[in-house]
Amino acid sequence: MLRERIIETASQLIGRHGLRRFTLDDLAAQLGISKKTIYKYFSGKDEIISVFFDEVLGSDRTSTLQEMDRATEWRDRFRAVVFSYHKYKLPLPVIEEARLIYPREWEKVEAYRRFKVRLLTDLLNGAVGQGLLRPTIRPEILIYMIEKTSSIIYEHQFLHDHGLTLKQAWEEVYQVLMKGICE
């Protein structure tokens, strides 16, 4: 139970301060425990960060696959891949920090991105093959558009400037994609 509380609190601190400025001193203070207690569960900050990334990406993967299994139509499966949810938030600045200073965690993010791209590719190719999308649709271009769009709408300033929540922004993207590509 304490191990989960440590990761949950670490996720909040990482979200607030980023990977560099997240400290075990802050974590211990927030939890009201000693650093020695944290070391009973984790070897240090790097292990906590590693477990945090495993939790975020693992819960997102599980959520995506569960939603895809529940979906009966390809549009709902598409939505499940694009609109996946995870246990803890993974802000874009944290992902960027991982790219710069935590290569093992960055590789986890990249592996997850490749997993999502494979799901989308298979899904879109299947939809084209079934005649649900125009045969001229090239899945690799659509996937690239989704990836680039996601990097824009995850920017806090963009959402703020346009008075949108992340969910609203993704809903708009989904509507544009579906009305623009479906026959």
UniProtKB/TrEMBL annotation:
Any one GO MF term held by the record is: DNA binding
Q: Which domain of life is it from?
A: Bacteria
Which residue intervals define the domain HTH tetR-type in the entry? 1-60
Q: Which parts pass through the membrane?
A: none
Which processes are annotated in GO (biological process)?
regulation of DNA-templated transcription
Pfam families named among the record's database cross-references: TetR_N (PF00440)
Q: Which residue ranges hold the DNA-binding region?
A: 23-42
| UniProt KW keywords | DNA-binding
Protein name, per record: TetR/AcrR family transcriptional regulator
